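Annotated sample (chain length 109).
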Amino acid sequence: NTGNGVIEAAQEANFYAIGVDADQGYIAPGYIMGSMMKRVGLSIFETIQKILDGTYRDGSVITYGIAENGVGMSKDEDMKAIVGEDVMQRLEEIEQGIIDGTIEVPERS
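Output written by the structure step:
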């Protein structure tokens, strides 16, 4: 698929890539600086829970962002080695700012 092709091309060209949807660091260790992850299983699990306990509201929209652990970035040793501790610290600050509302991420329509 396209994503794996990009990772393979990055590895061949001695560049870095960013994985998507799940932690893809295992595909090309040392070449994946991190992965942007969608934790779809969490939303499925919680929706099923709501259906089973009778709290599900048909037609409702539930957002799973960083604060809800629905999306996030993998932060492993390869990423630390590539970007350095100062960048890792800044990423943590930004993530916390999004969670606590001091950094506003515009919604896409």
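Annotation: The two ends are 28 Å apart (CA to CA).
Annotation: The longest strand covers residues 32-38.
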